[in-house]
Amino acid sequence: MSEADESDDQRRARGLPPEPRRPGDPEPEAPKPVHVAYWLLVAAAVVLTLAFVVDLLNREAFTAALIERNTEDGIADEQIAAGVESMLWSLIVGAAAVGALLVLFGWKARQGTRSARTVVTVLVVLMALFSLLGGGYLVIVAVLLALAGSALMYLPSVDHYFPKVLKRP
Questions:
Q1: pTM above 0.85?
Q2: Helix (H) or strand (E) holding 62
Q3: Residue 139 in contact with residue 147, Cβ under 8 Å?
Q4: Exposure string (b/e) for 37-53, b if CB count within 10 Å is 16 or more?
Q5: With bands split at pLDDT 50, 70 and 90, how would you rate the model's confidence at 135?
């Protein structure tokens, strides 16, 4: 059998990437756990952004909670109230950016790109670490969804789908 007649699975078994797709060729089918992992990452991105939108909609209660926790004499309640809305908008933009990166690299991982799987893992770990600083129940749900999605990409049954890149001498 010549190299041109090899299937993508045979190329991956030899440590090679799949044959490049030509325009119009159908996309190869990802294993079911990888497909589910992608949709879990999409759900995590939506829930993470939604968590901060809910905080923005409840900014009066959020502001009151921050003012109540304030122990500094040099910071007035008006200063806290003035900064809450811009902080929440910044959190929404940040969550949307992280969510977009999760979806993008999840999509690339669904196509079998090993480095994209690694980037997804790093993003999920960073997301989990930042959630320790604070966040409501929706942020925790988003982190758990992302952790589950990332873990599915490391199952032994899908390891063949992410070929190791051979080092060139």
A1: no
A2: helix 59-69
A3: no
A4: bbebbbbbbbbbbbbbe
A5: confident
